[in-house]
Backbone:
């Protein structure tokens, strides 16, 4: 499986151990560290594929659960796969559907066989996704990177439950691995173990053998304190294979990206930049600002001074504020462009610090400027 | 006033009397017949100015009433005018606010002095717009074409009320005309008279002297049968000045544009193409189609065969349908692009027929293909 993939480490930061790498896929090369914007239903909300690419996105994430329910993976297969359907020719990563089954379905029944759940779309039709089914759907979508079907637990469950879910995730991983064939798709296994260091250790040790060209860290950024997430990353950093990218799922705030890369993470994804954009929040290297604030009413400066995105090159805070307060779609669109670009500018700064062997210094400087 | 404007008739169709013309404004030239997309609040909903221009739009319309309430005309003035605020460098036409005061305000009191009305935005703050105030706002916005402040009546009022509103519109026109100074803005007066041929005649006769480089027909397309609108246009066609463009306000369906040009109309505007786009309706030269229809689920052909817009060049009906049924913003955006382009393609066909002195033949062919 996945012979058309490779990962090369190009540079290791002497100060932090963080890496710059290059992941080659059938749809092109991804330089890490990388932030991946999310196009849940085969569209990064409000943006064209050209806009997503123009801000510097190298890969996007799409959701198996959502595409399975709507328009259905067989429709995407008939369209020639997700790349062709949505007209995005760079790499695509699809999640497994596991997380959404747990977080979005009103009814769900998890057994070793898989998950039965009720659709939130049509009044509750029942569906069943097994590890094999998740891979079958991801194969129909034709993503470059497929994720293993896992069981994610909330940080407030007992250790017993966390361990059971970890075991089930490993059991399912073996089944995913058996059916994830083909050279043009790669399977990323997912480390679970909740907030328990020993479970994380065990999960990392037993998951690593399944990793061919990438491994993911799941079950974090799901409600636990950030410090706890950082502790888990510190546990995992020396244990995870160093010859492949590590993907921290669901993380997209600037502070967590900086802390994550310092702890050996190479890939990130999150709906955060586009979701808060539609709400009027701009991400900047000095912290978030909310354009609804009345003080921007006649502020004719760009959203972020020095930003090179389409929004900042062309429009003022006053105009974006007007659009946002008037519920005009173009406002969310402009801030989505800006926010994704801001995260790509952040990873560019991080890369430069890695090249200069000074990522820990950069982190210090970053947090001196960054206002929470 | 308006010395930086001129209108030249380039060609008159021998078969229909319809014209091709060229209206020169401080922000560029408009070839007529022309459809003007509407950017109510200084944004054509969901689209960038580049997209609006790329589909062939030569001028757009923005709404005085809406911009007065939000963000306020003084904010737009402080931004350097509407062109700069929204980054649209081609001509802009602003309506006078009259129509919206009548159609959108929960409370309104009309006297010869002007209109008092309650804002629908903030729980009912009271505002007053006089003819002079409407022009002052439009001057702050800096539109190329300003519209006279008029009183529009619904087609079900008595003839007495229709006549009173026509008289008031003429009284207000004289006041608008006195304050509409400056060479870089032109005032279009508006013919009223409801659905009464004699009132329309009288209004046309008394309004025409105020028209310098364009005249508008208001109070149609407001609920009366289309046949009645066509009758009124037939009444007006020989009476309106022929050396300037005639603008039929609020009309944007393909059939009405074809019938309008055949009756001497040169300019049209409507929210229709963008409003129905967000609902999933595509305008085509063969009639509207609704992409929500299940039959398009796996239809991988473009929205309109032969259309050269960004949507039709790149995406399938199946993908657009998926976006629309999933409430994804990009779906409405793609159809807005398509629908505006479809209207510009229609006017291009109409122009060609005028050049060939066969517009009445074209109309026949158009209606043979067009399905209501």
Residues:
């Amino acid at each position: 499986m996945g012979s058309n993939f490779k990962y090369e480490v190009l540079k290791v930061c002497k100060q932090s151990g963080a890496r710059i790498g290059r992941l080659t896929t059938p749809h092109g090369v991804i330089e890490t560290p990388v932030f991946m914007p999310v196009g849940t239903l085969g569209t990064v909300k409000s943006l064209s594929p050209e806009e997503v690419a123009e801000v510097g996105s190298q890969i996007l994430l799409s959701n198996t659960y959502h595409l399975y329910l709507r328009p259905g993976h067989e429709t995407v297969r008939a369209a020639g796969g997700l790349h062709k359907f949505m007209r995005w020719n760079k790499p695509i990563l699809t999640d497994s559907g596991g997380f959404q089954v747990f977080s979005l379905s009103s009814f769900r029944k998890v057994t070793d066989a898989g998950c039965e759940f009720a659709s939130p779309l049509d009044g509750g039709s029942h569906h069943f996704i097994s590890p094999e089914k998740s891979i079958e759907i991801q194969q129909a979508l034709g993503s470059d990177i497929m994720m293993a079907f896992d069981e994610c637990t909330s940080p407030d469950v007992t250790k017993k439950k966390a361990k059971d879910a970890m075991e089930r995730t490993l059991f399912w991983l073996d089944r995913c691995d058996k059916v994830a064939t083909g050279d043009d798709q790669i399977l990323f296994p997912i480390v679970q173990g909740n907030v328990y260091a020993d479970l994380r250790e065990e999960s990392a040790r037993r998951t690593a053998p399944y990793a061919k060209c990438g491994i993911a860290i799941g079950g974090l950024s799901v409600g636990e304190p950030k410090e706890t997430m950082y502790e888990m990353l510190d546990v995992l950093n020396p244990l995870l294979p160093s010859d492949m990218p590590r993907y921290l799922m669901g993380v997209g705030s600037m502070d967590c990206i900086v802390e994550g890369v310092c702890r050996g993470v190479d890939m990130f994804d999150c709906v955060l930049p586009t979701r808060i954009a539609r709400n009027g929040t701009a991400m900047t290297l000095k912290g978030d600002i909310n354009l609804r604030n009345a003080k921007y009413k006649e502020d004719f400066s760009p959203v972020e001074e020095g930003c090179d995105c389409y929004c900042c090159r062309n429009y003022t805070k006053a105009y974006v504020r007007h659009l946002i307060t008037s519920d005009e779609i173009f406002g969310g669109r402009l801030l989505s462009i800006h926010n994704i670009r801001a995260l790509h500018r952040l990873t560019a700064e991080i890369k430069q610090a890695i090249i200069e062997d000074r990522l820990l210094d950069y982190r210090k400087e970053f947090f001196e400027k960054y206002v929470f």
